[in-house]
Amino acid sequence: MGRLLPFYLLILFLPILLTVHITSSLTISPASFIEFYAIYHFYNPNETIYGLIIQNITSVYPNGTVKYLFYNVNLNDSAYVVSPASDNLLSPESLYIFYNVGNNTIYHGEMVYVLVTKVDGYYVYRASVNIDGVKIISWLYINKSEIPYKLIYLQYSVNGILVSNTTFILYSSNLINPDAKIYIPSGLQLVQNSFKAPLNTGKFYLINDFFMTTLLLSLLALSLYKVYSKYGYKKG
């Protein structure tokens, strides 16, 4: 089945219980979280997967580095993947936090978002990347909270055909509502990354972005879990 599916194993440090005030409206501390309702639609074959995406911060360090747990929940199959990740609050690349909202241009990792319009209090930004002929267009809906209300990724094939639509809609975050709690449905099956999987599939392109790569790989893991659960898995 190819090489082991990587989930970015990180060196573990003793957590330092800090609260970091950055040059924004946010106060980040351990237990801060962002949760999105996720819809993945693939046009060929015509298939839709519903899920939850959770980024739950576990440690904050003086230099702005944060460690967090990334949960990808597949509601169709009642399964989830969880993996450790890290980022830096001075310039977030994988956490879904966006600074300088309202500016004509904002940056998030390698994505450059350009302001298109403002609708109902939300700034609407557009970004586009082209990787080996595969085009990904991203739409960002966000206000001064600096947490996206909605984020859309449209993936086009080298022939210009729309392949998939990945949409995140904000479910809750205690960075916006201090009383908010993480929602994880009961009865989910944790998927261990103990099986092997190919990195190149007809359904996914691994884009040059840490969070989206982790997301797509974990979604692939959930898809393989569905296959293994149905047909079984034999080594060799």
Topology:
Elements: E1 20-21, E2 27-28, E3 33-43, E4 46-60, E5 65-74, E6 79-88, E7 105-108, E8 111-119, E9 122-131, E10 134-142, E11 148-156, E12 162-173, E13 189-190, H1 210-231
Parallel strand pairs: 6-13
Antiparallel strand pairs: 1-2, 3-4, 3-12, 4-5, 5-6, 7-8, 8-9, 9-10, 10-11, 11-12
Q: What share of residues are in beta strands?
A: 35-45%
Weakly predicted, low-confidence segments: 1-23, 194-211, 224-236
Note the gap between the termini: 9 Å
State the helical fraction. Answer: under 10%
Q: What's the shape?
A: globular
Largest sheet, if any? Answer: 11 strands, mixed
Report the strand count. 13
Strand order of the largest sheet: 7-8-9-10-11-12-3-4-5-6-13
Average the pLDDT over all residues and give the rounded result: 76
Structural class: mainly beta
Radius of gyration using CA atoms only: 18 Å
Tally of helical segments: 1
| Secondary-structure element pattern, one letter each | EEEEEEEEEEEEEH
Quaternary arrangement of the chains shown?
single chain
